[in-house]
Amino acid sequence: MWRRVASLSSFISSSNCSFLAQATCRLNIWESLTTGIAQQAKGVIVPKEKTPFITFVLGGPGSGKGTQCIKIVETFGFTHLSAGDLLRREISSNSADGAMILNTIKEGKIVPSQVTVKLIQKEMELRDNHKFLIDGFPRTEENRIAFERIIGVEPNVVLFFDCPEEEMVKRVLNRNQGRVDDNLETIRKRLKVFEALNLPVINYYSQRGKLHTVNAVGTVDEIYEQVRPAFSALEQVVG
């Protein structure tokens, strides 16, 4: 069903609807596909499965996207999946993939797409919720393509937290969370990689009518006031 639903995305995005109108239209069509209750030969009614509602949350390190995800979860009941947290958890497991991920992050490079997508997929399959915030992914066009190929669905909404580089550097250095990648040299590398590789992803989703850009400078509450309307308008249809 995920693959059948995903095939509708190009049809929906080709319209001239606004960001919120497209997202609502897309979800209504998806719900109509999954609402039909199948009847088996013996007359047994099989309840529908909820179509996943996926929001990608993009922004450079220190843009505040993780903090805003917490508020979205509290208000709208999404499950928050942080790509960075999943990678760090894999590192701490001392697996072969974990060692590779650690070396890649230290060099300020992007972890192979399939590795990250598989970690995200595993977490999605373990959750009962159908509403997901996927934080810090996709970071590249390769990431985006791998997600759509492996998971078989496109995101409904893409949030982009737009924040000046120096502000992001200041925030990361001040957060003091003991992360392996929270040092000035690695931060600069990560920001350069982010700028070079993330812009095509942002442009792609802008053209698809799925992008909601947030000015990520201000207090947490001021920034959230830009985020909240995107979800408030969808709350009734998302469920």
Outline the structure in words.
The protein contains 12 helices and 7 strands. It has helices spanning 2-6, 9-13, 19-35, 65-76, 83-92, 96-106, 113-126, 141-151, 165-175, 184-207, 220-232, 235-238; strands spanning 38-39, 45-46, 53-59, 79-82, 131-135, 157-162, 211-215. The strands form 2 sheets. The chain has a 5-stranded parallel sheet, with helices on both faces. It has a two-stranded antiparallel ribbon with strand order 1-2.
| Unreliable runs | 1-17, 28-48
CA-atom Rg in angstroms:
18 Å
Distance between the termini: 19 Å
Q: Write down the secondary-structure element order.
A: HHHEEEHEHHHEHEHHEHH
Strand content: 5-15%
Count of helical regions: 12
- Helical residue percent band: 55-70%
Class by SSE composition: alpha/beta
What is the mean pLDDT?
Answer: 80
Biggest β-sheet, characterized? 5 strands, parallel
Query: How are the strands of the largest sheet arranged?
Result: 4-5-3-6-7
The best one-word shape is: globular
The count of DSSP E runs of length 2 or more, i.e. the number of strands, is 7
Task: Please provide a brief summary of the model.
With 239 residues, the protein is an alpha/beta fold.
Which key features would you list for this structure?
two-stranded antiparallel sheet; 239 residues; globular; alpha/beta; 57% helix; 12 helices; 7 strands
Secondary-structure map:
Layout: H1 2-6, H2 9-13, H3 19-35, E1 38-39, E2 45-46, E3 53-59, H4 65-76, E4 79-82, H5 83-92, H6 96-106, H7 113-126, E5 131-135, H8 141-151, E6 157-162, H9 165-175, H10 184-207, E7 211-215, H11 220-232, H12 235-238
Parallel strand pairs: 3-5, 3-6, 4-5, 6-7
Antiparallel strand pairs: 1-2
Helix pairs in contact: 4-11, 5-6, 7-8, 9-10
